[in-house]
Write the structure tokens for this entry.
Amino acid sequence: MDDLQRKVLDYVDRDFLVNTTMELVDIPSPTGSEEEAARYMNGKYIEVGLEGDLQKISEGRYNAVGSLNGSGGGYSLMFNGHLDTSYSGEEPELTQPGYKNKAILDGDLIIGNGAFNMKSADVSYLTAVKAIIDAGIPLKGDVVCASVAGEIEKNRIDQYQDSLYDGYGVGSRYLISHGYMTDFCILGEPTGMQLAPWHGGTIWFKVTTRGTMGHTCYGDFTESAIEKMERVQSEIRKWIKGYRERNVFLNERPHVNVAAVEGGWPYRCARSPIECKLYVDVRMVPGQRVQDVQNEFKQMVSELNERSGDINAKVEVYSSHPPSGIPVDSLPSRAMIDSHKAIMGEEPNVIVKTSYLDGAHMNRYGVQTITYGPAGVVQDIEATSGYGWNADLGEHISITTLYNATKIYALAALDICTRERDPKEIAADPYVNMPS
């Protein structure tokens, strides 16, 4: 480790990291209501010496962006993290302290809604860049810290039409299409300090069946919509096995979740169900195309319709996000590997992050994105691939892990943004050499 790296690490402020994380956790920010948290982060960006910018996406929804301009001639780097939380903090079923909008300091843990996913990472970026500023180290390239709205996996459908359901990268898409484009991005989604150059994709399908309305007492109606849907579900479950067997990437196989069913009139059980709707989440691993999976699923239902003659199920796609990834030997990957080794004494594990991430949008815009983030205490290593959270506690973050991750982010930013820009390290436009 050289003198410049040691100097930066000396300025990583642990107390600032802990206190700011707890203050951010205290601010409720469910998907669709991120404004107060964004305003808080914007104020913090300005406080440490960054140029602050509040990007309004829609009423009550903002991105907070902090920029540190370099002298020129270097690579630009973005730290990206979402402000919206997976839970509102008001769910009556979630009684654990880790699902509440009040941070608790318990030994090495910060407990509270969003502490794990992923307010702690937002503050970690801020603290890392603050260390570079406080150390007085000039950078060639720009650094952008982006705290974005609307990453959580939600999508409008049917009666669910409020901004509460606008997730899946609303903030990041707005960010990169409204002025904030960098060469590289570090995404601090929870990985347990493992390096994830790749992440999965997802498609949400809605399947609808219809029956004939009839009165329970007469019983002479045809097969109900729910009974038809039972046959559809049976076919989907058969399909899942083959789908998972056919698709694999570095030992990871895509999961499929039959996620929700709506049908009939709960307030009027004396009538047979006229309509039933089934919602299915089909995951993808890198190398799969959204279009191919859509066609395969629709074909499966179409063949069932042909065989049955009476189900007539209809399929609608209402959310689709492709898998993505960057090479392990790309510059942001190498920078994270070297920085992790400098702090932890060994190279990080390299994994596939199977969930959707905002990297799906970043990489499509040519912003090479590497995922690396802290995590809480793992309850069952076998079940969580080495990272996760204790279900009896709810969301939480290890301060030791967070502090180490912050040091690693600071070293990675120092590595990337003090280099002279080399165009060969930048992701090429895949269409640039297309024949006319």
Observations:
- The radius of gyration is 24 Å.
- The first helix runs from residue 3 to 10.
- Residues 3-199+323-425 form a domain with the Aminopeptidase fold (CATH 3.40.630.10).
- The chain has eleven helices and 16 strands.
